[in-house]
Amino acid sequence: MNQDYIQPDNWSIIEEGFDAERVKSSESLFSIGNGAMGQRANFEENYTGETFQGSYIAGVYYPDKTRVGWWKNGYPEYFAKVLNAPNWIGIDIEINGEDFDLNTCAKVSNFRRELNMKEGWYNRSFEATLRNDTQIAVNVRRFLSLNNDEVGVIQYEITPLNKAAVITYKPYLDAGITNEDTNWEDKFWETLDIQHDQSQAFVTSRTFKTNFVATTFMHTSILLSGEDLNIIPEKVDVTKEKIQFNYTVAVAKETTSTIQKIGGYAVSMNHENTQVGAEKAIQAALTIGYDQLLIGQIDAWAKIWEMSDITIEGDVKAQQGIRFNIFQLNQTYLGKDSRLNIGPKGFTGEKYGGSTYWDTEAYCIPFYMATKDQHVARNLLTYRYNHLDKAIENAEKLGFKNGAALYPMVTMNGEECHNEWEITFEEIHRNGAIAFAIFNYHRYTGDYSYIPEKGLEVLIGIARFWHQRANFSTHKNQYMILGVTGPNEYENNVNNNFYTNYIAKWCLEYTLEQIRKVALEYPSDHKRITEKTKISDFELQGWKKVADHMYFPYSEEHQVYLQQDGFLDKELVRVADLDKSQRPINQKWSWDRILRSPYIKQADVLQCFYFFEDDFSKEELLRNFEFYESFTVHESSLSPCVHSIQAATLDKMDMAYIFYLRTSRLDLDDYNKEVEEGCHITSMAGTWMSIVEGFGGMRVKNDTLHFTPRIPNEWKGYSFKINFRNQILKVAVSQNETNFVLEGNTEITVNVNGKEVLVEPNNLVTV
User: Fold this and answer.
1) How far apart are CA 271 and CA 166, in angstroms?
2) Catalytic: 489?
3) What is the Cα–Cα distance from 408 to 387, expressed in whole angstroms?
4) CB 738: neighbour CB atoms within 10 A?
5) Is 401 exposed, middle or buried, given 0-12, 13-18 or 19+ CB atoms closer than 10 A?
6) Residues 563, 559: Cα–Cα separation, whole Å
């Protein structure tokens, strides 16, 4: 059974009723972020039940020394950990002499939490009876400001219900934080300094090894019936890594007392003196004030939704799912800083380490290109260009030469930091996704300038890698790529993975094409790049030879491309015939059993058909889709969205809809039984794609937008907006028509179901 406690709602994630078993899952689902920092939805007050504490600062990491029983040449020295940062949200509370803790209360009722995605805030409310028989009502609101992205705000209100109460608020900053996923139980932070002045406090810490400095700060105010008491703490407790204020206030029955806490981080990536940065952040927040900070938050989210919202009529769960995905993507990355990227868990957990996987290029870039300005996607491409030297170093460690580049599977700074053999050294398809993103960016935005400026150097490094990684089989008289793992990680160390071989061939051909184009149209860039990379005609001929003679495994019997050599040697029992009690297999089976089974985490052949759709016929797609879908268990978060898009392309709308729900509610309904570890942020972009590219059928061909709109039977209608070459097009699809409205100055021609349609500015066009 999937979990189903999240209440259906168009704009909010809502939980009703307190259940200690759900606390960790909800901490993930109700996480908040603003692109610069984020945190799980931990309780502010002390909680002695099961919890997973997590606060994170974008770009701050620790190189946790690799832990393996046996060492192989080329192993990365470390695994980059997304760091659990010092905690600024904590507020211990004492009521009539008893510590307040939801885990020990005599009774908790009317518990409700809401993540309001429209306005960007998180709220928790409940009534509780303490063991000393004091009854209270609590309401807590928290948000991380988009406009002042170093600042977060908590407003914590307590109302005694059955008698007066003496309440002691004990807000604190705690730098004595560890990661749940540390390899060696290392401490990642050292505390350098703790300071306080009246109602504000500062803890300055530095990461070991990487030497990031962060000043964690707080400013606290106590209010009674909404009036600021202007009091300073009566007591300040300072230990080696923590500072805590004490405020005691006598509160009459049915009167509300409030603590407002401003907190956050000033980081050495952005400040020479982090303490001064922290003081300025507090001052800016106090000048604006709580009410205006909240109004600013609501306005900032309104602007984001104005461009990125997708509406669905007639299906609340589907609507909630897509908005949750769009919301989390925007909480994780806003494109302001090219040093940052999109971690697979964002700010919702620690799993997977690293900030950057191939997911960014394969899944996230289309979302950011269409819902933001093109410079956001360009920043993501620039991030990889800035890491090119490291990618060349990574390849050198494995024995590649001559400027061949292997981009890392997982990275923070361009260096490979993933250390599972079969992924680090074998999941080399990631190189292809990085090249594909350059092609995809140009195809969508029309901005070619990135390629002569930066992209061509990246493409050359990647092409050199593929040229050297392929080896010639005299037996088959073709080039092979041996010993790889495709995106489907349930098959390791295989030969001739279809997707890997195909994308390698494509990369070589695409790079050759770009070299010719840059030589013709940007001769000075061509000269600079050829001198820098020392590329020769002889080398280019070698690339062409590999591309022209690449081997692809194929089954004449089934008329399908094979995942890899030997796939048909497996015992081909379909998923439909697999005992449901055995699912998910990654939690029930040994790795040995998984590797020998035909079951696919995500279908590599279909990933190839998704990227290179125009290279194959619809009949080929149908045969391959039906064959591989029957063996796919979708235990990768990246799998259902591709299947949803392809099912829609094949007019299998019932199937497309089921896959859409699975991708959009993967975390809300916890399909993979692991949401307490954090949400699947990068796959959320696939949810957006399954509506826009799947149901909407959006493609870009020859500089023109193409649509083949379809709609699930369960929906009355849906709409989305895309920013295509600085023109904003709104597409609204109902059961019997599609409407287009253009916000811009220049008319555009779009292709709908194979026919050209002229769309003029601010003029409704119905098809």
Assistant:
1) 41
2) yes
3) 10
4) 23
5) exposed
6) 13
- By C-alpha distance, which of 103, 87, 99 is closest to 20? 103
Q: What DSSP designation does 677 have?
A: G
**What is d(CA 281, CA 671) in angstroms, rounded to the nearest whole number?**
40
Phi, psi of 641 (to 5 degrees): -65, -40
CA dihedral 435, 441, 444, 450 (to 10 degrees): -120
Backbone angles phi, psi at 616, to 5 degrees: -130, 155
CA distance 62 to 684: 26
DSSP bridge pairs for 168? 94, 248
Burial of 184 (0-12, 13-18, 19+ CB in 10 A): exposed
Element (H, E) at 722: strand 717-724
pLDDT the model gives residue 712: 97
Neighbours of 170 (CB within 10 A): 22
Beta carbons of 727 and 748 less than 8 angstroms apart: yes
Enter the tokens of residue 707. 């649509």
Cα dihedral across residues 594, 597, 598, 604: positive or negative: positive
Burial of 35 (0-12, 13-18, 19+ CB in 10 A): buried
Contact 114, 130 (CB under 8 A): no
Catalytic residue among 457, 489, 491, 635: 489
- The two beta strands, 310-313 and 717-724, are antiparallel
Q: What are 699's strand-pairing partners?
A: 706
* DSSP at 514: H
Q: At CA 509, angle to CA 355 and CA 469, rounded to 5?
A: 60
CB-based contacts of 533-537 (< 8 A; 24+ apart in sequence):
533/403, 533/457, 533/460, 534/403, 535/460
CA atoms within 13 A on the CB side of 39: 26
Q: Check if the beta carbon of residue 722 is closer than 8 Å to that of residue 731.
A: yes
In this structure, are residues 225 and 130 in contact, taking their beta carbons and an 8 Å threshold?
A: no
Q: Where are the beta strands (DSSP E) in 211-346?
A: 213-224, 227-228, 235-238, 242-251, 257-267, 310-313
Cβ-based burial of 534 (10 A; exposed 0-12, middle 13-18, buried ≥19): exposed
CA distances from 280 to 205, 300, 369, 373 (A): 18, 21, 34, 30
Spatial separation of the C-alpha atoms in residues 633 and 673, rounded to whole Å: 14
Whole-number pLDDT of residue 77: 84
Six-digit token pair at 698?
């959006």
CA–CA dist 177, 86 (Å, integer): 6
- 206: its two tokens: 């530095």
In SS3 terms, 537-606 reads as: HHHHHHHHHHHHCECCCEECCCCEECCCCCHHHCCCCCHHHCCHHHCCHHHHCCHHHHHHCCCECCCHHH
Among 514, 496, 491, which Cα is nearest to 436's? 514
CB contact at 8 A, 519 and 527 = no
Query: What is the mean pLDDT for each group of 10 consecutive residues in the chain (767 residues)?
Result: 90 98 97 97 98 95 80 79 93 98 98 98 98 98 98 98 98 91 80 97 96 98 97 97 98 98 98 98 98 98 96 96 97 91 91 82 95 94 97 95 96 87 90 98 97 98 98 97 96 97 98 98 98 98 98 98 98 96 93 96 97 98 98 93 97 96 93 91 92 98 97 97 94 97 92 96 89
Instruction: For residue 596, give both structure tokens.
Output: 């020998």
What Å distances lie between residue 336 and 35, 102, 371, CA to CA?
8, 39, 14
Nearest to 58 by CA among 329, 241, 289, 332: 332
